[in-house]
Design brief:
This protein has 221 residues and is an alpha+beta fold. It folds into 2 domains: 8-57, no CATH class; 69-220, Porin. Helix content is 15%, strand content 51%. The protein contains 3 helices and 9 strands. The protein has an 8-stranded antiparallel barrel. Strand 2 (84-99) and strand 3 form a beta hairpin. The radius of gyration is 32 Å and the shape is elongated.
Length: 221
């Protein structure tokens, strides 16, 4: 049996439905670009569910990345030796990573020297130091450091020495991310030497060697 001919109205309805189906299908397959911030939150998980703990742990400032800049405030205490009863230091620092995990620091400090057989001394100094973060994780790092600088004091440091001295240093420490923000706690220990390198004569260079413990906090800028 021959099917009855379709009316023009039926053809029009069929064509309209076909156009709608094609249009909806094309939009369903269109994929909009995902912003970097949104992409960072789409972590692997069942059914594409964002893992809240991992998302909160992401560090947008990438501590240790080449080209980033940080500033710090801190202080330390050095035990006494045969020439001094110890010294206390407070400091302000600027830090940048020359390459990944390799840090250059500029430290400006104020000092108090508690000394035997002479007046105590106040001092100001500048240090240039390098740190290699040989273990670097999202929340912590372990580093080795070395550096040197100069210091000027209000009295001889140590006794029979000079007011102007050099300050080589070397040590190790750790950094730890504080909470979910970018701030980093820095804790370390170092060998600290103070002497004038015989610039005031061989008889006026007693020198002093101390072990210093220090702590500071770093922020990005």
């Amino acid at each position: 049996m021959t099917p009855p001919p379709r009316s023009r109205r039926t053809d029009l309805v069929t064509h309209t439905l076909a156009i709608l189906v094609v249009g909806v299908g094309s939009r369903a397959w269109a994929v909009e670009p995902i912003s970097p911030r949104l992409a960072s939150l789409r972590l692997a998980g069942p059914a594409g569910i964002t893992q809240p703990d991992e998302a909160a742990d992401a560090d947008p400032h990438e501590f240790g990345e080449a080209g980033t800049w940080w500033w710090s405030v801190g202080g330390g205490f050095a035990a006494g030796d045969k020439t001094t009863n110890g010294n206390t230091n407070i400091n302000f620092g600027l830090h940048t990573f020359l390459v990944d995990r390799f840090e250059l620091g500029l430290e400006f400090g104020g000092w108090f020297f508690n000394q035997d057989n002479q007046d105590d001394a106040l001092a100001a100094n500048f240090n240039l130091q390098f740190r290699w973060h040989f273990i670097s994780r999202k929340r912590m790092s372990v580093f080795a450091e070395a550096g040197a600088g100069v210091i000027g004091a209000t009295d001889e440091v140590p006794n029979t020495g000079s007011e102007f001295n050099f300050t080589p240093r070397a040590g190790m420490g750790v950094t730890w991310r504080l909470g979910q923000g970018p701030a980093r706690l820095v804790v370390g220990g170092r060998w600290q030497h103070i002497s004038n390198a015989r610039t005031a004569g061989t008889d006026r260079n007693p020198g002093t060697d101390n072990g210093m413990a220090y702590v500071s906090v770093m922020w990005p800028f």
